[in-house]
Amino acid sequence: MKFQLKLVASAVLLASAGGSMAQDLVVKIGHVGPTSGQIAHLGKDNELGARYAIDELNAKGVMIGGKKAKFELVAEDDAGDPKQGTAAATKLADAKVNGVIGHLNSGTSIPASKVYSDAGIPQISPSATNPKFTRNGYKTTFRVVADDVHLGGTLGKYAVTQLHGKSIAVIDDRTAYGQGVADEFEKGVKAAGGKVVGREFTNDKATDFNAILTAVKAKKPDVVFFGGMDAVAGPMLRQMKQLGIDAKFMGGDGICSGELPKLSAGTMGDGQVVCAEAGGIDGEFKGGMETFKTKFKEKYKLEVQIYAPYVYDAVNVMVAAMVKAGSAEPAKYLPVLAKTEAYKGVTGVISFDGKGDIKNGALTLYTYKGGAREQIAVVR
């Protein structure tokens, strides 16, 4: 009798263990961003947005295909370098992750997209804005922000029609993002009837801009546009002040961070800087974004820089497709992801077009007053 009871007990334990194992589905979500280097503050912001989403999903007990999913974040650092970005992408492909959120920069996202396409792994960038990112015909490539055609063009028009720029100088850092957004800005200026009086370039590691700013000063611009990131824009603003260049300073989402006042050492005046974020919240979504930022600060004791909410939405959009497809296998949920329609995220409604671009992407225009970012308008 005792022997029989032991057999029954063993059978129950085995069944219980087997049931538990059957319910566990490990889903690996890759994330890549520059968590080292000049813009590490932006890369870490992105990674925390992904961790926030993963923690929340695990707490909810999400079911995929009848199994309880356990989400794991596989984070890689690309330092904003295209070669390191491709190496990170290869590493994630070899690890057979179920999907990738990233990269932050267009210059790393574009070459990495081929690696993910070859491996059949869906990739959603929360911040790569260069149009080429979604123009290579890869079925695995998506983004949740508007591209530079919209962003740069809108800023170019704004410089002429709202800032009344009559002589506009353009500088870029020669990266895929910086040069791309500067090109679109220049087109926007010309389309609005404005005049570009000079075009200069630097690089994304530069700290001394004396030569190019001296050339810019000679053109007497009333607006200076910089295509690049905040780590370069901050010192550039300081040196503009030192050289006595009294002009409005404009840039895309790369400079539009909470760190810019600190990086410029407090030298920028109220309303001097105008930038745009490749996303935008209005109406019913404004409260959701504000709630996210509050909870993010409570969780990490840090302010959101720029893209963390877009990373958060990208993770959730990807997982929603897995749930709907009943599978975390890339080949099975990819077609569902591509047909994402009217997903309500904290950053707004997300739908993808045939290229993987977000439909009706918004832009938010900002300035800075008292060392803090202040919204001007949401433009679609």
Automatic annotation (TrEMBL):
Keyword Transmembrane among record annotations: no
One Pfam family of this chain: Peripla_BP_6
Alphabetically ordered keywords of this record: Amino-acid transport, Signal, Transport
Domain Leucine-binding protein: 27-371
Entry-linked Gene3D superfamilies: 3.40.50.2300
Signal sequence residues: 1-22
Family matches, as InterPro entries: Leu-bd, Leu_Ile_Val-bd, Peripla_BP_I
Protein family membership: Belongs to the leucine-binding protein family.
The name this protein goes by in its record: Branched-chain amino acid ABC transporter substrate-binding protein
Naturally occurring in which organism (per UniProt): Roseateles aquae
